Amino acid sequence: xxxxxxxxxxxxxxxxxxxxxxxxxxVGVLTVLWAMNGQWVWFVVGVLIILMNVGLLVTELRPVPxxxxxxxxxxxxxxxxIDNDVAAARKLRKADRGLSAVAAWELVQRARKADxxxxxx
Length: 121
Fold this sequence. Notes:
Elements: H1 2-37, H2 40-61, H3 72-78, H4 85-95, H5 101-113
Helix pairs in contact: 1-2, 3-5, 4-5
């Protein structure tokens, strides 16, 4: 069931990048015309729009980190002394940038329920 959503995510990202690129090109042409005509307010607006589009392109094309494989004992060691589950999940996500919030929450819950003496996965 994940495959169709992955394809839709790729399509959405591709269309966003294409639209951003087209917008940047069109506004770039207008910005050059505004600069030649001395319309400096519109020139600044055009430059700002182009910079925002470049920022969008950079954030969309940035590689996404992959999550590590976490064992219950490692999670328990990391969150030792933290009583709040939300704070524990936040600390786990800081340790692993590729981990989703839901996955971090589930790992914290599993570590809290597991017996410390048992052989953890």
